[in-house]
């Protein structure tokens, strides 16, 4: 079968290769891939940005891709999964016995394995996944949303678990990429009175989509976000851009007793003045990935937001066009880009 594989720890070194079809173990589900998403981490693996990929230790060749969904081919008899069932995949596999796995936080597990990073992922035709990582879509939900549920889980962890939106909050989302827009969708769904999304001139189409989805877009190249936020500042801020220079802006735009979630991964060091955080008693909270309970929350929330989430898909590429797809993501073209085997 075809698979997009990273061949070495160096820039590039990613090609389509032939790999044997996987053989399912008793506790695994064999899934035929319907579509896979691309995110900034995949671009970092392609270009081998050390600040991001240092956490991975793959055995090469490794099949890339941690955002994917597909149809069940085979599953354990007692799993409740039937052939043909459309499922989303949690690609993060914790060790199951460390302190953090015991606390239900496998995203902090030192031995966690990310499919598409440490072990083979979903940019291929078929893959075997541990049964506990497989989630059938709720009945009646548009199947097109399935490959977006991994990034949605990232946003759910940030907006509903780590830094929850309270009814009536003014929320600021820094960054108009897929994670930023998903945070905005979820903040509105959670009852935020106003969601302001910031981007730059190159994000014109993404900011237009934000407006269509009920948010207030701000191009920071020409406007000051405080005009939309209000003089008291934001109650919650979600920093999704991964821009090392933005942390100070996040603190400045947060109101007194505000809460700031750092979600984006920076490729370099960040220097900012901490005094505003002290004087305003701002909480600065990291939000990494998601945990196993997050995926159950995703499935609960999904029926109410699926229509908005599917609107993020703007481009579709065939598996062999993965380099064109990665280039498009790197250039901030469109919003969510999918690969289809």
What features would you describe in this structure?
Helices cover 28% and strands 27% of the residues. With 341 residues, it is α/β, with parallel strands linked by helices. Strands 3, 5, 6, 9, 10, 17 and 18 form a seven-stranded mixed β-sheet that branches. It has a six-stranded parallel β-sheet with strand order 13-12-11-14-15-16. Strand 15 (254-262), helix 9 and strand 16 (283-286) form a beta-alpha-beta unit. Helix 1 packs across helix 11. The model has no long low-confidence stretch (mean pLDDT 94).
Observed structural traits:
single chain, 341 residues, alpha/beta, 7-stranded mixed β-sheet, 6-stranded parallel β-sheet, 28% helix, globular
Topology, number of strands: 18
Overall mean pLDDT stands at 94
Helix content: 25-40%
Number of alpha- plus pi-helical segments: 11
* Low-pLDDT windows of residues: none
